[in-house]
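Risk register update: the risk of archive-format incompatibility is retired. Evidence:
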Amino acid sequence: MQHQLFAQHADAERLILFFNGWAMTPESVTHLSLPPGHDLAVVWDYRDDHLELDCSRYEGISLVAWSMGVWAADRLSAQLSQLPLERGIALCGTGRPMDDLHGIPVEIFAGTLAGLNEANRKRFNRRMCGGKIYAHLLKALERRSTEEIRQELERVQTLELAEEQHSPASPLWTKAWVAGEDRIFPAANQLRYWQGAGVETSYEAEAAHYFMGGKTCWQELW
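Archived output:
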């Protein structure tokens, strides 16, 4: 895993720890204004489960994960549960990213991986954004090679196929947001997953998969 710390104040006592989506870069959330006294750490690139991030200076941490980042954070559940978490917010994702009932349908997931090339990658990004053009984000995503993000998605597929019996939803999460216009993770599958886990669920009918695109500050996600 890669990460980047955006320090707002030398004496910040709180941290927003954000697990990004597949193929993403930090630009997916750098437009969001931070609450006073907060720093931001963005995690991405899930070709491994190794996260070396020192959070010891922070008195409180808000865990936020988007899309495939929900799955990635779940894989570090034992490590993250040792942190002073104040909330755990899941955005447009589940702990079962390749699942006909609770995630991306298996055939669609496999098709995305099998057909991954430069042209299909651009189409995926357009679907993710709900047809809207976020020029700063689309340009930033070009920094990651197609081969790199293929390896990232292949690892998710391999691990999910090897999972004989899925564990219940991680106790990390206190709230889940579901987007009605999500064209990546079907909204019905997300609702089934989170409501079945007893997690507070909020539904935004007109939002797309890139849920943060229509927000201006982190507090809108709480």
